[in-house]
Design brief:
This is PDZ domain-containing protein. Pfam families: PDZ_2. The chain is α+β, with helices and mostly antiparallel strands. The chain contains ten helices and ten strands. The N and C termini lie far apart (64 Å).
């Protein structure tokens, strides 16, 4: 029962609801675009919202076990600064996600405000029973490890995204030809259990759990940790691109652990420790820049073609998933009939209402033959997403 009450207090925090609204709006925009562009949504379920709850709770549980196992301690003042900056970033930057940047800025703001907090806000907080923490190395090391938890969670999301829906967005290039962009933008707010000093929560809510280590008392708080990333590709298969980016985030998560260990065994000032968090944030930006650079220097475009029809998406749970097809493949023949447009493709499908036979050229320029059963009388439910025919 106490666990449920702790979770209830997590759910009333503004960052959770702002994140949920932002996630819902992104999912609704995707579904509307797909229905407008492809006549029906590739996946009408709001997967982003489902992931917000399902993945958020699972990853949050794992993160809480790690955080409490390591005894990570945070300052209540820093929590307020972090949540405020996170909410502002979600509101004023509608088309991007900056979790790592917000995390780094929160520590920079906490460091910059610390002199005034010590003389003013700390006194007010202590009158209400809130124990504040000085800007010591132990607190910042905890912050470094919390950042590592967020980076690891992002790596897991990217890895899983490679196996899930990839929604194509059609864009014109400089020559007026249609190309496809695949964008990954998933936002989570993880409930990460951390320790905060004092028993001020217990004095207000008598059921709130309190732990005592030596002479110091600690309460558990579910920190809403903003997790996610916004990335896109034009010239890579999205599954491979997200997995490659996932490896970069795993390396950064490992680096945060190494830096925390180094800081623990050495005597670094808080200023240098905040510099280590800044170094990790810089590593995130470098990883995203490398991702964009690698994509720009690939030769292959997911573009419209004059020979055949390009596969730009595959709907889940349809007969198309049984075909040996991949994003970027070009269908040359359908039921032994040459096709050069979406209309010709579906006309050829109607010639065999229960079975489809395809001749395909993959991105390696190899010719393959694939076939499968389809729904009787429903060729549009095959599940292959193609460039829609342009109107004259």
């Amino acid at each position: 029962m106490h666990v449920l009450k702790v979770l209830e207090l997590f759910l009333i925090q503004p960052l959770v609801w702002v994140g949920l609204i932002r996630c819902y709006l992104a999912a609704r925009h995707r579904v509307r675009y797909e229905r407008h562009q492809y006549k029906s949504a590739i996946d009408a379920h709001y997967l982003e919202v489902r992931s917000f709850f399902k993945d958020g709770l699972l990853l949050g549980l794992a993160a809480t076990i790690v955080s409490l196992g390591l005894g990570l301690i945070v300052s209540p003042v820093w929590v307020v600064i972090y949540e405020l900056l996170a909410v502002v970033s979600l509101v004023i930057v509608p088309n991007a996600l900056m979790p790592a940047t917000v995390f780094g800025l929160s520590w920079l703001a906490y460091w910059g405000l610390k002199p005034s907090l010590t003389t003013q806000l700390n006194t007010q907080l202590q009158t209400h029973g809130v124990t504040t923490l000085g800007l010591n190395s132990g607190v910042i090391i905890s912050g470094c490890l919390i950042l590592g938890i967020g980076l690891a969670a992002t790596a897991i999301l990217l890895r899983r995204r490679g196996l899930q829906l990839n929604s194509p967005q059609i864009r014109p290039d400089q020559r007026g030809k249609r190309i496809v962009r695949y964008r990954w933008q998933q936002l989570l707010v993880l409930p990460v259990g951390v320790l905060i000093p004092g028993d001020w929560l217990h004095t207000t809510l008598t059921w709130w759990p309190v732990f005592q280590v030596g002479s110091q008392k600690f309460s558990i708080l579910l920190l809403p940790l903003l997790v996610g990333v916004s990335a896109q590709v034009y010239k890579q298969r999205p599954q491979q691109a997200w997995q490659r980016l996932s490896k970069s985030y795993w390396w950064l998560a490992a680096a945060s652990i190494v830096l925390a260990v180094i800081a623990r065994v050495t005597t670094l000032s808080p200023r240098w420790l905040i510099g280590l968090i800044g170094l990790l944030v810089l590593g995130v930006w470098i990883s995203l820049a490398r991702h964009r650079y690698y994509d720009r220097h690939q030769q292959f475009w997911f573009s419209d073609t004059d020979q055949g029809v390009r596969v730009i998406g595959i709907r889940p749970n349809t007969p198309a998933t049984k075909l040996d097809l991949h994003i970027g493949d070009v269908i040359l023949e359908c039921n032994r009939q040459v096709v050069q447009s979406e209309a010709q493709f579906y006309a050829a499908l109607l010639k065999s209402p229960t079975y489809v036979h395809l001749k395909v050229r993959n991105v390696q320029q190899e010719l393959i033959i694939t076939e499968t059963a389809i729904y009787n009388g429903a060729p549009h439910e095959l599940g292959i997403v193609l460039f829609t025919d342009q109107e004259d």
